[in-house]
Amino acid sequence: MASSMVGGLVKAGHPAGQIRAADPFPESLQRLAELAPVLTCADNREAIAGADVVILAIKPQVMADVCADIADAVAKADALVISIAAGITIDSMQAWLGDGRAIVRCMPNTPALLGCGASGLYANASVNQAQKDWAAHILSAVGIIEWVPREVDLDAITALSGSGPAYFFLFMEAMVDAAVAQGLARETATRLALQTGLGAARMAVQSDADLAELRRRVTSPAGTTEAAVNNFEAAGLRQLVTNAMQAAADRAAAMARELG
């Protein structure tokens, strides 16, 4: 995810020489340097010195240790901190970094790697408008963004767009398996399923009609699509999706309790 942000920023015209990246693994820094001529180092505090924005693109399990290590450097730089770690609340980060730090929590998703991400953002009261604009600029470089008014809303965004790509992959897997069971070659079924998903998403993005109307336009009375849609409805697809997304949101909240 860090690499995708760097690539997006550079592509958007941000000077690579103004970006510093720290990582304990030289191989990761080498791959990043091949992507763009950013400044690299192995020490987090060295990377933070004088920075306006610090992005913590790290695993939630190491957030407490990393924050403890960089707290003084962040305070000295008076930098905006952007966290993309799932389940780590701002209260926890303030406990580790110190009260009064400007923090934005972000929940991106993996299509950000292709510049097609969907990210939810929440800012604490210490974030000023200029810093909010910076966060929007950075995350918009890899996709669309939506600010939410409450931190708890990030749990719902985790369930929707954060975990969402896996739901579509699973649904396409099931479509491919069903087509193979009906006699199609797996390679043929896979190509058609992927293109169908891509085409449907593009239609939805570019259309002024809502999703329900788009579905109705494809569903001719007494036709093949209606037969399939009626089967989905009778099997409780909507409730199944509701239950699954609630499980994801509940897990996000549980991670905050476990890791905070």
Quick gist of this model?
The chain is α/β, with parallel strands linked by helices and 260 residues long. The chain has helices at residues 2-11, 26-35, 44-48, 63-77, 90-97, 129-140, 153-162, 164-181, 186-206, 211-218, 224-234, 237-259; strands at 20-22, 39-41, 53-56, 80-83, 103-107, 117-123, 143-147.
Walk me through this protein's architecture:
This protein is an alpha/beta fold and 260 residues long. It has 2 domains: 2-155, NAD(P)-binding Rossmann-like Domain (Rossmann fold), CATH 3.40.50; 164-256, ProC C-terminal domain-like (ProC C-terminal domain-like fold), CATH 1.10.3730. It is 58% helix and 12% strand. A 5-stranded mixed sheet has the order 3-4-5-6-7, with helices on both faces. A two-stranded parallel ribbon has the order 1-2. β4 (80-83), α5 and β5 form a beta-alpha-beta unit. The two termini are 22 Å apart. The mean pLDDT is 93.
